[in-house]
Amino acid sequence: MENSIISVRNLSKIYPSGLHALKNINLEIKRGEIFALLGPNGAGKTTLISTLCGIVNPGSGEALVDGLDIVRDYREARKRIGLVPQELSVAMFESVWATVAFSRGIFGKAPDATVIEQVLRDLSLWDKRSSKIMTLSGGMKRRVLIAKALAHEPQVLFLDEPTAGVDVELRRDMWQMIRRLRERGTTIILTTHYIDEAEEMADRIGVINKGEIMLVEDKDVLMQKLGKKQLTLQLQQPASALPPELSSYGLALSENGEQLVYTYDKDKEHGQIASLLRKLHELGIEFRDLHTTQSSLEDIFVNLVGEKA
């Protein structure tokens, strides 16, 4: 993809234990987008991020960050990446300022107090700049991790489960901060198992399960699918096949023949259900019950993950 900042091709990873953590991953992440990687615990989210950040060696395949191979051009590729890990890994006796400034130096960037100040202000850490890390709350420590990841002005920011275990207020703050970063041109990749987080934040959503990418979609396209509702009719008598007179409705017959399922867009329904019910009556097809359901991102996620279970 022309506008990709990250290109992953046939990436696989098998650990010595035999765990097949990544299976032939192909993924393009566009410059300047917010990409949410959704998956249950143990799905391969952290392994994929750790591989792209050079922490875990890929078994096979390749990954490019801004055109740089993460293995061959490791140092240059890594300079373009900021990583906020799940676990709190900070020097407890250092001040906030010293910790963040040190992170900038690690990546070979010259000291720049204005950059550090901006990062700390963006994350509501400016008032805590002289405080030792050990005196901060868990939420503030999480902010320090993000500040460390941003100190060297990366083009790509990876956030691994950024809001796991944080309070609602901090989640909202972090969402706002992520949007501001995107406005400045930073590409954001976040892993999450909070479906509402992906729904709220992402431009595109990828679903990973058991080391495989199962779906990558524009969030808006997915949300259109979520606009779909289903009308399920419990038939009095099982049907062996759909009558041809009903072919225009796009109905599905359950395997046992006991249910007819009509899927429709709630915004474009305009009397189709009434027409369908009339048609069933004309054909002498009786039903004993009917109910409607609306799919959600959670349903899609559960169905995808369930298919492979």
Written overview of the protein:
- This protein is an alpha/beta fold.
- The chain folds into two domains: about 5-225, Rossmann fold; about 230-305, Alpha-Beta Plaits (2-Layer Sandwich), CATH 3.30.70.
- It is about 35% helix and about 30% strand.
- Strand 4 (about 60-65) and strand 5 form a beta hairpin.
- It is elongated, with a radius of gyration of 25 Å.
- The two termini are about 30 Å apart.
- The relative contact order is 0.13.
Brief summary:
The chain is 33% helix and 28% strand.
Question: Topology of this structure?
Answer:
Elements: E1 4-14, E2 20-30, E3 34-38, H1 45-52, E4 60-65, E5 68-69, H2 74-79, E6 81-84, H3 96-106, H4 113-122, H5 138-150, E7 156-160, H6 168-183, E8 187-192, H7 195-201, E9 204-209, E10 212-218, H8 219-226, E11 228-235, E12 252-253, E13 259-265, H9 272-282, E14 287-294, H10 297-307
Parallel strand pairs: 3-8, 3-9, 6-7, 7-8
Antiparallel strand pairs: 1-2, 1-4, 4-5, 9-10, 11-13, 11-14, 12-13
Helix pairs in contact: 3-5
What gross morphology would you assign? elongated
Report the CATH topology name of the largest domain.
Answer: Rossmann fold
What is the level-2 CATH architecture name of the largest domain? 3-Layer(aba) Sandwich
Count of distinct strands? 14
Q: How many domains is the backbone divided into?
A: 2
CATH class identity of the largest domain: Alpha Beta
Computed structural class: alpha/beta
Q: Taking Cα atoms only, what radius of gyration do you get, to the nearest Å?
A: 25 Å
The CATH superfamily of the largest domain bears the name P-loop containing nucleotide triphosphate hydrolases
Strand content: 25-35%
What series of H and E elements makes up the topology?
Answer: EEEHEEHEHHHEHEHEEHEEEHEH
* Nearest-integer average pLDDT: 87
Give the distance, in angstroms, between the N- and C-terminal Cα atoms: 31 Å
Strand order of the largest sheet: 6-7-8-3-9-10
Question: Poorly predicted ranges (pLDDT <50, ≥5 residues)?
Answer: none
Number of helices: 10
**Helical content, roughly?**
25-40%
Main beta sheet strand tally, sense and closure: 6 strands, mixed
